[in-house]
Amino acid sequence: MDVCMRLLLFCVLIFVAACSYRSSPTSAVFSDSQRLLLIQTHLLLGQWPLAKGQLEQIRESARGIEYWRLLSLYWLSIDHIEQALLIHKEALIEFPDDDFLLNNYGVLLGQKEHWKEACESFKKAYQNGVSKRQSVSVNLSRCAIRQNDVNLAKIYLKQAKEIDDLPLIGLMTELNLVLIQGNKDKARLIFNNIQANEKNVRKSGYFDEYNCLSRHLTAREIDPTLYPSASNFTCLNNSRY
Description:
mainly alpha; 71% helix
């Protein structure tokens, strides 16, 4: 999904939420489908208590795949890792082949440093997705880097680029990859792109990885003989995944 489409979706969700609240300001009686739209909006805006309140009001009969996706995303978003893992396991019992749940479950497993299981979950998400998710391709590229398979990492990252511009984690992944390949000039271009949004980097869970990459790049630029060609270093172990 490109930037324009994401902005359009965001505006639609905000509009629906505003209309829903305005039409019933006191009783706030919504249908389950309206609540699901409201939950999406609250999650996009980082309004965690409001999202949780709406999730709790979804009727049992309406708790389908969309509900479980939003519930699992809520717990992932507020960094309650253990609870998020439990919710994802429960959701995957009901929907074992859902690529959204499998991808986020892999992220959680990675945060627990269960790399093998995480990569297996990403691979299953990749195989079951009706359309390719960029985040799945990026995660699989990171898995390939951990497994020292540079060629496979390049393939998955190329697929991610074909879907959309790389997000922060994608740029970090690409920077890891080009440094492993010994291409410091391209690495500098990518790093400058990341550095332009350093404020966002600091707010993310990847600041340690960013600092690690910065140190490696600077060392190579100061003394190219330290890394004359490709190497098997990685900064991935300094990141949350």
